[in-house]
Design brief:
Elements lengths: L2 H31 L6 H19 L3 H24 L7 H26 L14 E3 L2 E3 L1 H23 L1 H11 L1 H6 L4 H23 L10 H15 L4 H22 L6 H13 L10
Antiparallel strand pairs: 1-2
Length: 290
């Protein structure tokens, strides 16, 4: 196996980890609220810009920024839900889904325009690097490995949170059966607001690392949201393991496609994988069979 191929795999796995982290946030909001949040990518973009601002202004590295943005964007996410989504949460499921698409699309365009007004130039990324590692003659970025490790620790922490805490168990219960959760006394509205806040915090935390790899622009939100939807479908709704694995598959596939076929073909791979998984296993790799 060549050194170039190993470096491609490392880059693809890192990109996939970022995809998986952000996609799991989207999976939570859709599973708990039946809300398709088209503004999800905007929160990743805002997290990227905040991380960039902290690095340039205060010298704070992306690892610390990824932690700092979590409480900030969790509060913003809760406020977003209470201001825009709580009013439509009592609608029947199909009406709620359509209404949420319209509301979050409007919010996405608003955030995009406001961000473009205050942040005119694209952010070309954070030049933060640590001494590289050499393994078996292959030079690997230690920064990328640490980012990947951080993402997996955060994903594991979320898995434990969902399985061991009252709020986490409530989120899982609402995802499985909303009416049943209501019958046993789970405060649906309060847990829904927290779930939305967690989803936005995960997106922003992923954004803190996204800016270390790619250029960030105000108009990148909706294309990223569509990509994360593909990851959610690929991995299975509500599954953090599925989201991470789906993100890894997409990240590696995009990286290899860009290298061997050209960058212009890279965006299409998400939709090819989406079509294949819908044909072979519509519930996703780790989704529950109906």
């Amino acid at each position: 196996m060549s050194a170039d191929f190993i470096q491609l795999l490392v880059g693809g796995v890192l990109l996939g980890g970022i995809y998986g982290l952000a996609a799991f946030g989207l999976s939570i909001t859709f599973g708990v609220l039946n809300v398709l949040n088209l503004a999800h990518g905007e929160f990743l973009m805002l997290g990227s810009l905040l991380s960039y601002g902290l690095f340039v202004g205060l010298g704070i590295n992306p690892f610390i920024s990824a932690i700092v943005v979590i409480p900030i964007f969790m509060l913003l996410g809760i406020g977003f839900y209470l201001l825009l989504l709580k009013q439509i949460s009592d609608k029947p499921p199909h009406q709620l889904l359509v209404a949420s698409i319209l509301v979050t699309l409007g919010a996405s365009l608003f955030i995009e325009d406001v961000t473009a007004f205050f942040w005119e130039r694209p952010v070309t990324g954070i030049s933060y690097s640590l001494p590289p590692l050499e393994l078996a003659g292959v030079v690997i970025s230690s920064t990328r490995l640490l980012i990947l490790l951080f993402i997996f620790v955060l994903a594991l922490s979320m898995q434990l949170y969902l399985r061991r805490t009252y709020v986490g168990k409530s989120i899982r219960a609402i995802t499985q059966c909303r009416e049943g959760a209501k019958v046993v006394g789970i405060p649906i509205s309060r847990v829904s607001a927290l779930a939305f806040g967690i989803g936005m915090a995960l997106a922003a935390s992923a954004g803190a690392f996204y800016v270390t790899l790619f250029t960030v622009t105000p108009v990148m939100g909706i294309p990223l949201t569509v990509k994360y939807l593909c990851v959610v479908v690929l991995g299975g709704l509500g599954s953090i393991v599925g989201s991470v694995l789906g993100g890894l598959i997409l990240g590696v596939a995009e990286t290899l496609t860009a290298y061997y076929c050209g960058a212009e073909w890279s965006p299409t791979i998400a939709f090819i994988l989406l079509i294949l998984i819908l044909i072979i296993r519509p519930e996703g790799l780790f989704g529950a069979r109906k």
